[in-house]
Structure formats: C-alpha cells, structure tokens
Amino acid sequence: MQIYTRRLNLSPNTIETYRSHLKQKLNIETGAELTRIAFLQIQEEQSISKFNG
C-alpha cells in the first residue's frame, strides 16, 4: 500500500477508506475480489480500445 500512498500523495487511512467504500458499493467482502474486479475492468477497457482503435 505504501506505493499507492506515495504515488497518490494520500495517507494510508484515506486509501483504506476508499477501498472500504468501494467494497461496500460493489457488495464484495475481500480485497482479492476488489482486485479481480479491477483486473476484469482493465481487460474489458483494453478490449474495447483495440476494437475501436
């Protein structure tokens, strides 16, 4: 998490709050699920950009 706090210039508590809110909104329980959803979203966006590119 330190990488994200430095890159985004945010405190670890802020990052954890954002993660918690995302998990609530997406109705998921674990960080692994959040990572999986993010990965799938990136794959989808890349597929769309290749198709439109």
List the helices and strands and how they pair.
Elements lengths: L1 H7 L3 H15 L4 H22 L1
Describe the structure in your own words.
The chain is mainly alpha-helical and 53 residues long. The protein has one domain (2-52). Helix content is 83%, strand content 0%. The chain has 3 helices and no strands. The longest helix is centred in the C-terminal third of the chain and has 22 residues, at 31-52.
Short description:
The chain is mainly alpha-helical and 53 residues long.
Instruction: Specify the helix fraction band.
Output: over 70%
Task: Pick out the low-confidence regions.
Answer: none
Q: How would you characterize the largest beta sheet?
A: none
Structural classification: mainly alpha
Estimate the global geometry from the Cα principal axes: flat
Q: Based on DSSP secondary structure assignment, what is the total number of beta strands?
A: 0
Mean pLDDT: 90
List keywords for this structure.
53 residues, mainly alpha, 3 helices, 83% helix, 0% strand
